[in-house]
Recover the amino acids of this structure.
C-alpha cells in the first residue's frame, strides 16, 4: 500500500482507519524514510495546530487569502494535496500572522499605513515559495528580542509516497 | 559593484537607488543545528536559543551544533554555504531601507541544482534572527538559525 503524506498526517493525529494505520506501522518498521516523513509532517502539523489555537483567526478567511496568494505567485503542485490534508484534520487550521502555510507562497499582511515596519517585532517574511514541499511560517517565543520567525519546510513531497 | 539583478530591478524599484557596496553590505550568521530524538540534551553553546525549548522544537530532545558560518550579503551576489545534507543555502542582499531594515533573500538548492526552497525573502534588523527548519537529516532534522549580524 502506498503511504501518502495525507495518510501520515491522519496517522499522526490518530485519525487513520485501522487498515491504513497498520500499513503505516509496517512502513515505519521497514522504511526509515517513512519514519522521517512522519516526524517532519507531525511537527509541521503540531506547529500549525498550535498557531490555530493561539490566534483563533477565521480559517475560511485564511484559506481564501492563501488562494489569492497562490494566484499572485507561482502555484505549486503538491501543496494543494498536502495543504488540503492538513486543512482536513480537525483543529489543524493554518492561521498564521504574516505568511502562508502549505505551499501557498506568502505575502505580507496588507498594511493600511503604507510601508510595513519591522519595528521591534520578529523578522517579517515578505515572500516565500515552498516549491514542491509542504511548509509553514509561524513564530515561536524567543529571547529578549521577542518572537522568532520560523520557516518550516518538510522533505515530503506528493510523489514521495513509498510503496511498501 | 555589480548591478542588481533584473528581477530586483523590476520588482523592488524603491531599492533601485544606487548605494555604495560598503553601505549596502550586511552579514548573516548561520548556525546549523541537528535535532534528534536521542536523549543527549541541548548543546551548551545553544543556551541562548530559548526557541529550542518551545514547541514545536521542544519535540526534539537533542540539539547539537554542526556548523557555524558567516555569509556576506551583497546585492546581486549570492553567498552560499553547503549544508550537511548536501544541499546549498544561498543568501543575497535585496536592499537596505533608510531605517536600517535589511531586506534579504534566501534559497536552498538540491545538489543537482533544483530548488528545495526556491525563495524566502525577509526584512530584518541587525540582531534579529529567523529559523529555517524541517529538512530531514540522519534520523532527525536540520535547524538553520540565521541572524542578521550586521
Amino acid at each position: 500500500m502506498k503511504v501518502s503524506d495525507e495518510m501520515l498526517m491522519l496517522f499522526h493525529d490518530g485519525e487513520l482507519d485501522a487498515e491504513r494505520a497498520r500499513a503505516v506501522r509496517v512502513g515505519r518498521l521497514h522504511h526509515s524514510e517513512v519514519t522521517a516523513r512522519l516526524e517532519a509532517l507531525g511537527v509541521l502539523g503540531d506547529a500549525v495546530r498550535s498557531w490555530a489555537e493561539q490566534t483563533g483567526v477565521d480559517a475560511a478567511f485564511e484559506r481564501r487569502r492563501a488562494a489569492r496568494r497562490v494566484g499572485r505567485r507561482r502555484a505549486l503542485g503538491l501543496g494543494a494535496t498536502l495543504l488540503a490534508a492538513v486543512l482536513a484534520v480537525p483543529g489543524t487550521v493554518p492561521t498564521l500572522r504574516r505568511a502562508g502555510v502549505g505551499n501557498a507562497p506568502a505575502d505580507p499582511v496588507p498594511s493600511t499605513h503604507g510601508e510595513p515596519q519591522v519595528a521591534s517585532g520578529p523578522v517579517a517574511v515578505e515572500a516565500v515559495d515552498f516549491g514542491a514541499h509542504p511548509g509553514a511560517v509561524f513564530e515561536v517565543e524567543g529571547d529578549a528580542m521577542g518572537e522568532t520567525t520560523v520557516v518550516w519546510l518538510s522533505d515530503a513531497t506528493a510523489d514521495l509516497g513509498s510503496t511498501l | 559593484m555589480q548591478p542588481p539583478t533584473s528581477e530586483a530591478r523590476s520588482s523592488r524599484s524603491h531599492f533601485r537607488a544606487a548605494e555604495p557596496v560598503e553601505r549596502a553590505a550586511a552579514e548573516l550568521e548561520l548556525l546549523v543545528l541537528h535535532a534528534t530524538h536521542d536523549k543527549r540534551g541541548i548543546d551548551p553553546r545553544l543556551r541562548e536559543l530559548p526557541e529550542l525549548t518551545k514547541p514545536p522544537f521542544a519535540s526534539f530532545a537533542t540539539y547539537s551544533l554542526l556548523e557555524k558560518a558567516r555569509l556576506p550579503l551583497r546585492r546581486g551576489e549570492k553567498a552560499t554555504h553547503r549544508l550537511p545534507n548536501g544541499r546549498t543555502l544561498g543568501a543575497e542582499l535585496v536592499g537596505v531601507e533608510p531605517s536600517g531594515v535589511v531586506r534579504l533573500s534566501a534559497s536552498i538548492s538540491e545538489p543537482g541544482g533544483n530548488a528545495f526552497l526556491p525563495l524566502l525573502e525577509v526584512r530584518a534588523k541587525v540582531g534579529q534572527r529567523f529559523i529555517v527548519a524541517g529538512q530531514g537529516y540522519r534520523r532527525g532534522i536540520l535547524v538553520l538559525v540565521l541572524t542578521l549580524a550586521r
User: Anything to note?
Assistant: Residues 1-22 of chain B have pLDDT under 50 and may be disordered. Chain B is about 5% helix and 50% strand. Residues 6-11 of chain B form the longest helix (6 residues). Chain B touches chain A at residues 48-51, 54-57, 59, 99, 101, 103, 108, 115-125, 127-136, 139, 141, 148 (CB under 8 Å).
